[in-house]
Design a protein that fits this description.
It contains 3 helices and 9 strands, in the order H-E-E-E-E-E-H-E-E-E-H-E. The protein is α+β, with helices and mostly antiparallel strands. The strands form 2 sheets. The chain has a 6-stranded antiparallel sheet with strand order 3-4-5-8-7-6, sandwiched between helices. It has a 3-stranded antiparallel sheet with strand order 1-2-9, with no helix packed on it. 19% of the residues lie in helices and 42% in strands. Strand 3 and strand 4 form a beta hairpin. The chain is globular. The longest helix has 16 residues. The N terminus is likely disordered.
Length: 154
């Protein structure tokens, strides 16, 4: 009986509303939320970031709102090009919106594998990532579950 009480699932999936209800995402644990201003002033839009860690794996979702003067394709290109550049990835073809792609980069303490998906919506985009140190097993099933879920909120 104590064994059953002491066990909890490694992944405790839950639905989370992000960006003031603009999008719904699932997380494998209770996420931390953060709003990061995109500019100066009280009326400045903000990135909405939620992240949860399970063992050594970080699950992160970032909502990037589209400013009225921006075209969503330009926002997508800027975000994906930034990801690839920070990872030192020199691929010549940018992944298409909604495709899952992987990068390897040097993290703060060690090399990291990150699987990503950048999903485009009319009002912004959702960047999802699952990052694990290269010396740890990558959680393929959990990453697939996380990266395939994003949905516009109703």
């Amino acid at each position: 009986m104590w064994f059953l009480l002491g066990c909890s699932p490694e992944y405790n999936w839950r639905n989370v509303q992000m960006a003031e209800g603009a999008v719904e995402q699932i997380f494998p644990a209770s996420p931390l939320h953060e709003q990061i201003p995109m500019g100066q002033g009280a009326q400045s839009p903000a990135y909405s970031v939620a992240s949860a860690k399970v063992r050594e794996t970080l699950f992160m979702a970032t909502w990037v709102p589209r400013l009225p003067e921006q075209h969503i394709d330009d926002v997508y290109e800027h975000v994906v090009d930034g990801i690839l550049q920070r990872a030192g990835d020199t691929r010549t073809t940018r992944p298409s919106a909604g495709d899952v792609f992987s990068v390897q980069s040097q993290g703060r303490q060690n090399a990291v594998r990150t699987d990503l998906r950048v999903q485009v919506y009319g009002t912004g985009l959702l960047q999802l990532s699952v990052s694990t140190p290269l010396d740890q097993p990558f959680p393929e099933e959990a990453a697939h579950e996380f990266l395939s879920y994003p949905r516009p909120a109703l």
